[in-house]
Amino acid sequence: MPASGPTGVVHLATRSPELSGDQMVAALTPPPQFAHASFESYRADPAFPSQQEAKELLIAFAGGRTEAARGGLFRRRPKQPELKPGVYLDGGFGVGKTHLLAAIYHAMPVRRKYFGSFIEYTALVGALGYQNVVRLFTGADLLCIDEFELDDPGDTMVMTRLLGELVASGTRLAATSNTPPNALGEGRFAAQDFLREIHAMAESFQTIRIDGTDFRHRNVDGHAVALDAAEYAAAIESASGDGLVSDDAFDDVVAQLARVHPSRYIRLIDGVSLVGLRDVAVFTDQSAALRFVALVDRIYDAQIPIRATGTTLDRVFPEEMLAGGYRKKYLRAISRLVASTLA
């Protein structure tokens, strides 16, 4: 069913978006749910002192004055902490790492600053070429990298080389980990892995540990919602009366993802207020599964709900994939798929 005007139904499987380098760079800003994130709106859990400690350190990193440093009228003000050129936020899901990363972006009074996921930066390198990306970001004041991927050696080393060049030219960096809450130590080992992978520039980073429980109270072992055919049709019809929705067979979307560069996935869902997927099935090809993970990240960042039939979306990654080197990516995607089908 074709779309008519601002409302109707479109098909992701037939969209072939184009995205210029300038547009890709322009998109390197915090996602909609963090468009107004600030240190003031970050609610540190008093049960986990590391959250308030991280907040204070990051306020200083962004150039602001911490609560302790402000003090009273006659109170001796302690010296602001001296931080390294880079900060790395280490912790599990739902402790506010991305919120704090976006708060740094918004609070730092600099001219050239960028915010993107690890995947977005590596996609930019893939689309424009490494040297072009180096030239593009040289002279940038701040680079924020959400969910630094430690399970892809090739991409990790490309980013390590890129960040090393940028730090040498004066760029400040802030990054978060992608460690799931059921990992050993809830992220403590991610910090060690991160510093080992970027050994050439480890001295440039200060690791900031953030403890806590998932504020969304979401269990990565929970289940996404699958609809029957009638429920799905009703959901698509209802949503299409209020905005633009997509309706596709799951296999058709998966096939289209192989034809579209990951840097353009954000344009696949441009203008869409709900994503519909029919006859969801378990992945048998890891490359296809990883491309779907990248799409899920874009859908989640845009806060678009998903309605689906067939296999529940939290079960699309088979056990052999979950046991492999991309486990962290799949667990993050599962967490986001559960939330998106409940939205």
From TrEMBL:
State the InterPro entries in the record. ATPase_AFG1-like, P-loop_NTPase
Residue ranges spanning the membrane: these are none
Q: Which Gene3D superfamilies match?
A: P-loop containing nucleotide triphosphate hydrolases
Q: Name one GO cellular component term.
A: cytoplasm
* Regions annotated as coiled coil: none
Which Pfam families does the record cross-reference, listed alphabetically?
AFG1_ATPase (PF03969)
Q: Which SUPFAM superfamilies match?
A: P-loop containing nucleoside triphosphate hydrolases
What keywords tag this UniProt record?
Answer: ATP-binding, Cell cycle, Cell division, Nucleotide-binding
From the Swiss-Prot or TrEMBL record, give the protein name: Cell division protein ZapE
Q: Which organism is it from?
A: Microbacterium schleiferi
